[in-house]
Amino acid sequence: MKKVLWGVITVLIGAILIAAVGVGFHSQQYVAPAGTQVAKSDGTVTVNGKTYQHVTLDFVTEPSAAGNLPNGKPVHPGGNEGWPAYAPNNQFQVPANSVVTIHWVQYDSGEVVNNAFFAKVQGTVGGKANINGEVVDGIDPSNMAHSFTVRGLPGVDPNFFVSVPAPSSKLGDEAVNDKGGVTVDFSFISGTKGLYSWNCEFPCGSGVGGFGGAMSSYGYMSGYIHVV
Amino acid sequence: MSSEEKRDEIAAVVEPVFRGGPLWKRPAGKVLIIWVPMTIIGLLLAFFAPGHLFPENMSAEQEDVKTTFILFTALAAPVAAVVWGIALYSIVGWRKKSGKSDTPPEDGPPIRGGTIATTIWLGTSVILVVVLLVWGMAELSSELAPQQNAMQVNVTGQQWQWTFSYPGTGVTSTQLIVPEGRQIHFHVTSEDVTHGFWPVQLGVQIDANPNVTTLISATPNKLGTFDVRCSQICGLNHAYMETTGTTVTQAQFNAWLVSHGASATSVHSYAMSAK
Amino acid sequence: MTMTAPLAEDTKLGPKAGGLYRHQNFATGLIVGILSAVIGWVISHALLQSSNWGSDMVVTVTLVSWVVGFNIGIGSFNAIFRWSLGHDEDHEDQLYGAGVGQGWKRYFKFCTDHKVVGTQYLVLVMVLFGVGGTLAMMIRTQLLTPNSQFMSPETYNSIVSIHGMIMIIATIIMVSGPFANFIMPIMIGAKDMAFPRLNALSFWLVVSAVPPILGSFLLGGVPAGWTTYAPLAVQAPPAMDAFAITICTFVLSVTVAGINTLVTVLTMRTKGMTPGRLPIFVWGSIIAGGLGLYAMPAFLMAQSAMITDRVVGTSFYVAMQGGTGWLYENTFWIMGHPEVYVILIPPVGALIEIASTFSRKPVFAYKVMVSGVIGIATLAIMVWAHHMFTTGWAPTLADPFMLTTELISIPTGIVFLCMVGTIWRGSIWTRLPMYFLYLFLFNFIVGGITGIYLSDVPVDQYFHGNMFVTAHFHYTLLGGGMIGAAGAVSYWYPKMTGRMLNERIGKTAFWIIAAGIQITYLGQFWEGFQGMPRRVANYAQIFQHANDMSSVGAYILMTGWIVFLYAIISSWRHGVKAPANPWHAKSLEWQTSSPPPLENFLVDPVVTSDPYGYGEDDLAPQRQPQPVSAEAGSTTGGAH
Ligand SMILES: [Cu+2]
Ligand SMILES: [Cu+2]
Ligand SMILES: [Cu+2]
Question: What region holds the Cytochrome oxidase subunit I profile domain (chain C) (predicted)?
């Protein structure tokens, strides 16, 4: 009887230890300090004769996660020097089946993209984006900075695909966190409810192929969209 | 083997199997009573389970996978049943009551080996291996044989997207659209690290390597959608590197290409392309 | 706690015996290791002005300094220093080095007694399984729900890699560490291993290899799976350097241990211990040791090239600069396939000892069995490319590799023949070790048959990189290997600790483990059939039922292992005192006290037959077993 009790206690201690490790790893996940950006409602909008709820999101891309945003707040507190980052959020929440309009200001420098396919605008309303005041269906693949590429997670709306490129900042290789930004504006129609993942498809990280560093660390060039 | 050893073996191994009273009283008979139902269950599982476990077949290659799975399971069932049958019977029939006591039961018969048993065992496994091998080689060579009306699709993996392009037409897409009923040659490469191109219901798979083009072919034989996944861990968003494929008729396929900006002539020559 | 050998009680060593060893232990190892790591960090940091903390060079230099420093601190190289200064150790120094008169403290020292090293390994293996099992629980928790956000994909990928590698390290040493060190020399009637210092070195090298791989979580994580295929691993964060340093250190340890095992069996057998009389477990140990000597250096090469690619920019594996990932994949699997058998052969050997002892029958077809294991080891070095059937590396070699892979099922069948033949008409004594043999027979058949599907190239084109593969190798490595190791623990526990393992707790653990394995891995087979890829942080809704089954099974399985651990720990303290030969077995290790004295036997044993002469007392004299004659000497033994 005593042995049974001690056996149960051992199992409980084991379970508690494992749970503690679990809590530790759970807290490891990097979500930008500003948390999830909930899309702002902006009336309704009609696309191809159908009326949708209209919401907006806005974010920036910065050449260094260690620096500050144009409004003076840090990009990512504790972020790595020289790692580009989306800011201030990397998680977004939008309503299902509605038109999402994104206002994106891009401050980072550009380079040649490895797959020119991602220099094209895809899956947006009208297949185009307004880049620096010009409505275009793509940019120069030799001067691309980042892309905002969204897809449905396994089993969630698998055909959902939106990808919009952004060109280099006006300062080119001299890019800084708060000057020379280019604007990218586009809309897309959100899919069914569920979790979607987005990441940048321009290899803007470090290491071989440019997919190390910022590209491989969750929260810099990647995140989730919660469609509710 | 000395004559004495031979006598030992006959006494210890052969006797209880082939001689000495009615079959059901010999150990071999009792094991047989376990073996028969086990084998039957195994065969039933072999023939009926895979249909429920695998996703729907959408290509000749995936049909091969399922057939081979059934065949191998059917061959394995009797072998597994021998081992499990003897093990099970040994617990039921040969266990000595002194399970909890500190003194062991009396020694068992000193059977040190058996040329006959070993030969039968080895012979059976050699035959089985030959069957498996011949089957596998035949299957493989039939899959690799190029067909008259084959068509090429270029597949590019990159962290963490698939793109598919249809040579000559200028069309590139993140969805894989293929016509039904003709062999598709996938030319697979990668922009960065190693990925695994896996159109699941087509039952084939090949890695996408940087700077190399690897080849795999499949013949979709059913209209509908299938999953395309990455089967080789490729970093952060490896789990999300998946998309859908669709098998359509040749006419629908041509129309889809045109709707994605391909010229009618390029579509015509691509559709007619035979390798 | 343990029964001390007469020598240890009576012998008073001089105050200076052992020299520097007197002041060295695990703590000095840690101190010198950390100091040396700090120095390494400062120097590399200063030399590389341009680099910042976390760069590959700095991490590499720091961690190599740690490994070297730790081993200097604990005394791994003392003898070499002494010899280079022209001194030698005298007899008293050697006795001190073997732990004489140091009680429990010798377990925290560079101790050359093979029994101490074996016990150290046993504890280390349990710790590593604890870590690896905890990480497995993280994986299964993440996979409880589709698109789970329990962990970020980055954390999840790192956990998958480190779970895999920690488990591989643990399983490689789980039997060859504790039992080939503690038991094997006694089985052949030797006083110790051939190279006692190398033996201690092999243990402390593994210990020093553990912190880097665990530290990888703090260095950005290894997102590349335990296989760490290049170029993905070349691109990975500095954690990958830590991973590679762990591998290199571990390979050195396995190599050193393998040589030691081989030389011990070749040169240290007691009188009459001819090759034909060696216990199967000894055959298993040397065959696995030899196979390790062939296989592990390939891993050293693969990971050294990885380090140079990452640190100094060579391009062995970088396609854009003329390298190829296939080079890594080949060197990796030239290690990787034989390694599976380095893991499996020792537990199989142990299980055959168990089969004979608890069926009260000689091992069936001894010579065929030994040839079978040699056959497995030989074929094992010719099958590596079956892991590369779908890479496109050599399509024309598909047929030959399919042939060699399927051929392996013939010698593997011999293992089953030997086990089943030994049980056949035996007097089955259902003590705990025997339970594990039965579980092995069940699991390993499942693991073996699913391996045959994977050897067929067209079928592999569906299952490669798929959870089916994961389930297959867990059935073999856990369901076969770890279950064999658990059998070995319960079999030799009385000999190692001097106490009986509590069988009631052990059997409770057994049933929980047995159920847990089936639920966990049948669930993963199901995932595989449905088409779920391996190593994914998220999956589609359709896979949820299968994943939930697997996760629930995994929780059950972990519970079972914790109960087993409880049996081990509590019996170590409170168990019934063990007699010298609780199983009435005939091999040499049972003919001396439990635990054995320093140098194992008070009288050198003489062997006149193999240790399997059950039921042969009334046979012709030349076949009568007279395995031992040290019984008279084991005065400190128990009731027998
Ligand atoms: Cu980017
Ligand atoms: Cu991939
Ligand atoms: Cu293998």
Answer: 104-608
DSSP letter at A182 equals E
B14 versus C54: which is more confidently predicted? B14
CA dist A11 → C410, C432, C483, C555 (Å): 41, 21, 20, 11
Please state the ipTM of this predicted complex. Answer: 0.91
Q: What CATH number does the domain located at A35-227 have?
A: 2.60.40
pTM of the model: 0.92
pLDDT for res C88: 79
CB contact under 8 Å between A212 and C149, yes or no, is: no
Under an 8 A CB cutoff, do A14 and C146 touch? no
* Nearest bound ligand to the CA of residue A108: 1
pLDDT surpassing 70 at residue A126: yes
Q: Are residues C400 and C295 both part of a single domain?
A: yes
pLDDT at A34 (0 to 100): 66
Helices (DSSP H) in C360-431: which residue ranges? 366-380, 398-407, 409-423
Residues in chain C: 640
Q: Is A154 on the interface with B (CB under 8 A)?
A: yes
Q: pLDDT digit string (tens) for C84-108?
A: 888 877 788 888 888 887 888 889 9
Q: What is the pLDDT of residue C4?
A: 38
Residue C150 touches chain B, beta carbons under 8 Å: no
Residues C429 and C309 in one domain: yes
Phi, psi of A224 (to 5 degrees): -120, 155
Those residues of chain C that have pLDDT short of 70 are 1-12, 49-54, 617-640
Partner-chain residue, chosen from A118, A158, A222, that has the shortest CB–CB distance to B243: A158
pLDDT at B21: 67
All residues of chain C having their beta carbon less than 8 Å from the beta carbon of residue B94 are: 359, 423, 425-428
C427 to chain B, any CB pair closer than 8 A? The answer is yes
- Give SS3 for A170: coil
Based on the fold, state whether residues C78 and C124 are members of the same structural domain: no
Contacts of C236 in chain A (CB under 8 A): 207, 212, 216
> A137 CA to middle of ligand 2, Å?
27
| Pick among B53, B160, B205 to test the C interface (most C CBs inside 10 A) | B205
Query: CATH code at B226?
Result: 2.60.40.420
Q: What are phi and psi of C73, to 5 degrees?
A: -65, -35
Cβ contacts of A30 on chain C, cutoff 8 Å: 152, 154
To the nearest whole angstrom, how far is the Cα of C392 from the nearest Cα of chain B?
A: 6
Strands A129-131 and A134-136: antiparallel
B176-179 and B184-190 strand pairing: unpaired
Torsion angles phi and psi, residue B274, rounded to 5: -125, 145
Confidence band of B10 (pLDDT split at 50, 70, 90): low
